[in-house]
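Priority: medium. Attachment 1 of 2:
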C-alpha cells in the first residue's frame, strides 16, 4: 500500500558493506522460523497491511513482509512465499490486495497461483475496505470540515439547505468522493488493461477540479505526452458498464484517502506518529486505525474466510 513510512530497514547489509535484498529461499526460511514461534505467521505486502492486521488480529501472531527486490510485484512475492512455505508449516498464510485482479483478464486469479492459504482483501485494496467499513460514518461525523464540504456540495446542489444535518452531509460527500475516485480508477484500469502505461504520480487529484472530469483526462494524457488517447478514455468512461458490486474493485484506496484529506479537519491522533513529518493521508489512516475493530468488517468476505480457515486448523486468529 505504501501510506505508512517504513521505520525498519528491510534491506540486509552483508559483511562487505553491500546492500542486498533477500532471496525467495531466505524469505521462505524466515517465514518458517517465525511460524515456529507463533500460532500463525502472516505474510503481507507492506507496512500498512501489517499495522492493520496487527490491530485487528490476536497479539500473539507473527507478521512478515517479504524483502523482495524493488520493482518486483509485492503480491506475487507474498503468493510464492506462502505457497512454498506451506510445504513445511501449515500455519503460514498470506494476505494480499485484490487490485484489478478480479476484473482484468490474464490476472493472478487466472494464473492458478493462489492457494488455500492466500487470502485476498475485499474490493481493490485495504484502504477501500476501510473506507467502506462500519466505522467511516463515525469518523466523518467527528472530523469533517462542515463548511468546506458544504461549499463542495453546493457546486452540485446550489439550492442545498445549509442547515442540513451532519449525517446527511457525510453521506453526500462520501458518495461524491467515491464517484470521483471511481472515474479516476477507470482511467487507471484502462491504462493497465489497454497497456497505455500512463504515469499518475505527477497528477494532483482535487475535489473541486473533478466535477469536470474531461479536464482531468486531458491533464493526465498531456502529462504523459499521449494526448491522442483523450477521446478513447473519455468514450470509455462515458460508456463504462460495471455492476454495482464491481465498482469498489475499480476504486483505488490512495485516491479515496487523498480526497478525504481535503475535507477532514486533522487533529492529534496520539503518540503513533510524528505529526510534523506525516502526510495528511497518513494522519487519516492512523486516526482511523486507532479506532477500528473486527466488528467494523463483520460482513467482509476476507474476515469470514479467515475465520473458516482458523476453525478448520483449530487456530485462534481473532
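Attachment 2 of 2:
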Amino acid at each position: 500500500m505504501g501510506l505508512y513510512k517504513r521505520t525498519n530497514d528491510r534491506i540486509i547489509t552483508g559483511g562487505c558493506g553491500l546492500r542486498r535484498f533477500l532471496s525467495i529461499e531466505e524469505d521462505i526460511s524466515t517465514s518458517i522460523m517465525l511460524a515456529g514461534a507463533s500460532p500463525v505467521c502472516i505474510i503481507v505486502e507492506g507496512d500498512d497491511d501489517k499495522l492493520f492486521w496487527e490491530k485487528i488480529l490476536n497479539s500473539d501472531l507473527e507478521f512478515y513482509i517479504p524483502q523482495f527486490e524493488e520493482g518486483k510485484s509485492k503480491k506475487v512475492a507474498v503468493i510464492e512465499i506462502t505457497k512454498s512455505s506451506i510445504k513445511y508449516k501449515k500455519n503460514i498464510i498470506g494476505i494480499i490486495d485484490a487490485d484489478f485482479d478480479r476484473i482484468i483478464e490474464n490476472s493472478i486469479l487466472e494464473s492458478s497461483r493462489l492457494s488455500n492459504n492466500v487470502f485476498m482483501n475485499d474490493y481493490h485494496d485495504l484502504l477501500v475496505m476501510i473506507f467502506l467499513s462500519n466505522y467511516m460514518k463515525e469518523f466523518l461525523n467527528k472530523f469533517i470540515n462542515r463548511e468546506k464540504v458544504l461549499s463542495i456540495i453546493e457546486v452540485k446542489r446550489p439550492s442545498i439547505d445549509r442547515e442540513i444535518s451532519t449525517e446527511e452531509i457525510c453521506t453526500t460527500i462520501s458518495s461524491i468522493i467515491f464517484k470521483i475516485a471511481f472515474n479516476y480508477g477507470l482511467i487507471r484500469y484502462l491504462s493497465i488493461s489497454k497497456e497505455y502505461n500512463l504515469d499518475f504520480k505527477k497528477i494532483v487529484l482535487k475535489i473541486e477540479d473533478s466535477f469536470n472530469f474531461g479536464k482531468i483526462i486531458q491533464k493526465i494524457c498531456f502529462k504523459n505526452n499521449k494526448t491522442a488517447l483523450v477521446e478513447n478514455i473519455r468514450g470509455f468512461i462515458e460508456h463504462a458498464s460495471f455492476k454495482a458490486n464491481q465498482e469498489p474493485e475499480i476504486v483505488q484506496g490512495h485516491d479515496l484517502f487523498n480526497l478525504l484529506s481535503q475535507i477532514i479537519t486533522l487533529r492529534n491522533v496520539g503518540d503513533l506518529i510524528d505529526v510534523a513529518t506525516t502526510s495528511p493521508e497518513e494522519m487519516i489512516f492512523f486516526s482511523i486505525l486507532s479506532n477500528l475493530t473486527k466488528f467494523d468488517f463483520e460482513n467482509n468476505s476476507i474476515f469470514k474466510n479467515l475465520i473458516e480457515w482458523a476453525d478448520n486448523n483449530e487456530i485462534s486468529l481473532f
